[in-house]
Write a structure and sequence with these properties.
The complex is a heterodimer of chains A (about 450) and B (about 240). Chain A has about 450 residues and is an alpha/beta fold. Helix content of chain A is about 50%, strand content about 10%. Chain A has 21 helices and 10 strands. In chain A, the strands form 2 sheets. Chain A has a 6-stranded parallel beta sheet with strand order 1-10-7-4-2-3, with helices on both faces. Chain A has a 4-stranded mixed beta sheet with strand order 8-5-6-9. The radius of gyration of chain A is 26 Å and the shape is globular. Chain B is an alpha/beta fold. Chain B folds into 2 domains: about 110 residues, 3-Layer(aba) Sandwich (Rossmann fold); about 120 residues, 3-Layer(aba) Sandwich (Rossmann fold). Chain B has 13 helices and 8 strands. In chain B, the strands form 2 sheets. Chain B has a 4-stranded parallel beta sheet, sandwiched between helices. In chain B, about 60% of the residues are buried. The mean pLDDT of chain B is about 95. At the A-B interface, helix 1, helix 2, helix 17, helix 18 and helix 19 of A face helix 1, helix 2, helix 3, helix 4 and helix 7 of B.
Chain lengths: ~450, ~240
């Protein structure tokens, strides 16, 4: 289904849609407040943008530097060209250790690669341990937001999910009690897991270490308890130096949730004695995007989702209205790189208001890239024929003054009827203005005819 | 100076009073104002819909017809942004001589007084293309000192009171053809804007972009006809009363 059709469904419950909009807008407001407390916020964004730009220009060098440092620290480094290879590598490690249960902290990359499904097919139980992600996992649904996976659900709905899957009493609606139920449930999982998988927020080339940010400490609980720790990262997560963390960690949580920092920013360097630590570096289309000059900067994304929270379209259509697992503005410039036909309508699900680009902590020109994708998607024939026809006719009329004047007169003549019938998507909800008797150009021509000739004619 | 005035297609056909107000305002300031016959449109509807190649003719016509003017003014921020970006992409110097009306009045003309009176509560809708594209003001995402060229011009109007909005620069949901291809989201966004303006007591919603006002005005006509949408040129030129007072 198209984004427009999904959005139509989402907006059928206006009260709920308004709640969704308000909830996410509050996150944007919190971001504004936190950003305002950093005296050099805009300079920080600029620094982050330049570090990312530089890194992307020497991505291969930094990745190799990271590989050799990480290996020297005792981390086993793997390279995966695509999602399938990533899944094979992860499964291979788990199979070697006879893992039956894997606890996993938030990793959008494993969503991208459909890792859970792959492992479950091989008989391995996967437990998402981020609370929001666990809730949607129990529902057998994907996250609707990359930072707040269950932001679309109300407390009472979480209570229903927990009642059905965790055996809590029916009708539980208290945040404290729900959190406690989740805590008890997840604690059992951490204690009985055979391996832990985490994402990576930043990997540092000069140290071979990596940083995982969570608010719940779930990455740490998993990684510190299990004998095997696998960290999976997209190759764009690399930053050159340890000191660069000082830029990105200040931006990330403030942009994401309006917190000064995430509750846990955990630095991993080497396996503890007796533990195995693996890192899987995944390409899966990123090199292709790197080669597309117009869209390269999308790889600077640190996945804070500030563009989701600020996007007036996302807030009023919800994460499930987008066809790609990363929704919102950033998802809409990443998705066409993967499949232009399948996600061809995502770049059109925007008014091009530019709020996404203005809020982005690494200054990705998101709305400009949306516009560029529109051209490419249309040029490759992924637009409906009637739209192409309509645009061709419009272009034709607007280029010919006489035809335009005639079409304008006709349009104004029929405008009251169109307004009355309310058949088209505009007039169904919005009136057109009352038809003026004269266009501006007609008025000007009449006025100038009535005037005595000017002494100094225009150039 | 002799100014080229660009009146975009939908203003020409549907809101001639906005063209007249801009024309009269520039004449009042002592300029000779010329309106070439072509182009009718800046080309943005095609370009934003993914048909940039169909908009090239409009930009070429614009270049041919308007290159002779030292300054070009248009009462439509969105069209100006599209022209500027297209001309900049072609490295054409004309890009720096095209001005949105408020920008022209504020930066080039540097007006400090206006003979306009409008004793009403007014909500200023900052159009996205004017705000974030042309930099007519500081957008709320940006951590920089606050300023707004349209608001500063409105402050010169006698009796006018600007209302404070909860979301000072959220998009109205027009978005060009987005308004017809995504009507549900578009209308929902428009309604939220109207609620913000009307809830803060605005009798009029004004903007430097008529396209946003076409959308908001269309909703107002159906749902809150006591609030009117008027273009900023109409207020600054002192000709709202004559039109729709």
């Amino acid at each position: 289904m198209s984004h427009a059709a999904n959005a139509h469904d989402f907006l059928r419950d206006p009260a709920r849609a308004a709640w969704h909009d308000q909830t996410l807008w509050m996150v944007r407001v919190k971001r504004d407040r936190q950003a305002a407390k950093v005296p050099d916020w805009e300079a920080l964004r600029e620094a982050a943008s330049q570090i990312k730009e530089h890194t992307l220009s020497r991505l291969a060098e930094y990745l190799e530097e990271f590989e050799s440092r990480a290996a020297a620290n005792g981390i086993q480094v793997h390279w995966a060209a695509d999602g399938e290879e990533h899944n094979r590598i992860v499964h291979g490690i788990l199979a070697r250790h006879g893992v039956r249960k894997l606890v996993k902290s938030k990793s959008m990359l494993t969503e991208e690669c459909h890792l859970n499904r792959h492992l479950e097919e091989h008989g391995i139980e996967v437990i998402d341990t981020d609370l929001g992600e666990r809730i949607v996992q129990l529902q057998r649904k994907p996250p609707s937001h990359i930072v707040m996976p269950a932001i679309h659900l109300k407390r009472a709905e979480v209570g229903e999910v927990f009642h059905e899957h965790l055996g809590t009493p029916r009708g539980l609606d208290d945040a404290q009690e729900l959190t406690e139920a989740a805590r008890q449930h997840l604690r059992r999982q951490f204690l009985t897991a055979d391996a832990a998988l985490t994402g990576v927020n930043f990997a540092v080339a000069e140290t071979g270490g990596f940083v995982v940010c969570t608010n719940e400490g779930n990455a740490d609980m998993g990684a510190h308890l299990a004998p095997v720790h696998i960290a999976c990262m997209g190759i764009e997560k690399i930053i050159p130096k340890q000191e660069h963390l000082g830029v990105f960690l200040r931006l990330l949580a403030r942009s994401a949730t309006g917190q000064p920092s995430t509750v846990f920013s955990s630095h991993f360097y080497k396996p503890r004695p007796g533990q195995e630590m693996h890192i899987v570096l995944v390409d899966n289309g990123r090199s292709r995007q790197l080669g597309r000059e117009d869209y390269r900067r999308s790889l600077a994304c640190i996945r804070c989702a500030a563009c989701f929270n600020t996007c007036p379209v996302y807030r009023r259509s919800g994460g499930y209205s987008y066809s790609y697992f990363i929704a919102g503005p950033i998802g809409s410039i990443l998705a066409p790189n993967v499949d232009k036909a399948a996600h061809g309508d995502m770049p059109f699900a925007s008014t091009l208001c530019g709020s996404c680009s203005a809020v982005c902590p690494v200054k990705i020109d998101i709305h400009t890239q949306l516009l560029k994708w529109r051209q490419e998607i249309t040029a490759e024939g992924h637009a409906p024929w009637w739209k192409t026809l309509a645009m061709r006719v419009t272009g034709l009329v607007l280029k010919r003054p006489a035809l335009y004047a005639l079409a304008g007169r006709l349009a104004r003549h029929f405008l009251p009827l169109v307004n009355l019938l309310k058949l088209d998507p505009w007039t169904r909800s919005r009136a057109l203005p009352e038809a003026p008797g004269q266009s501006f150009r007609e008025w000007l021509a009449e006025t100038e005819r009535a005037k005595p000739p000017a002494k100094n004619p225009p150039p | 100076m002799t100014l080229g005035l660009f009146i975009p297609c939908y203003v020409d056909q549907l809101y001639p009073q906005v063209g007249r107000a801009a024309h009269s305002l520039l004449c009042q300031l002592g300029h000779e104002v010329v309106v070439p016959a072509r182009p009718a449109c800046c080309g943005q509807p095609m370009s934003n819909s993914g048909y940039a190649s169909l908009s090239e003719g409009c930009v070429a016509d614009f270049r041919a017809e308007f290159d002779r003017f030292e300054r070009i003014v248009s009462p439509s921020g969105s069209c100006v942004l599209h022209l500027k970006e297209s001309l900049e992409a072609a490295h054409h110097p004309l890009a720096h001589r095209v001005h949105e009306l408020c920008e022209f009045l504020h930066d080039i003309e540097k007006v400090t007084s206006l003979p306009a009176r409008f004793p009403h509560k007014v909500g200023l809708h900052s159009s996205c293309h004017g705000l974030r594209g042309l930099g007519l003001g500081r957008c709320s995402e940006c951590l920089a000192p606050e300023f707004s060229k349209p608001a500063k011009l409105l402050s010169l109007v006698e009796g006018l009171e600007l209302v404070t909005l909860e979301r000072p620069d959220e998009c109205c949901g027009f978005g060009g053809t987005f308004s017809v291809f995504e009507p549900d989201v578009s209308v929902s966004m428009g309604r939220d804007r109207i609620r913000d303006h009307a809830g803060h007591g605005a009798e009029f919603i004004t903007s430097a972009d008529m396209s946003c006002l076409m959308h908001l005005g269309g909703l107002l006509a159906r749902e809150a006809p006591q609030v009117k949408a008027v273009h900023i040129a109409e207020i600054l030129a002192g000709c709202v009363a004559e039109q729709r007072g």
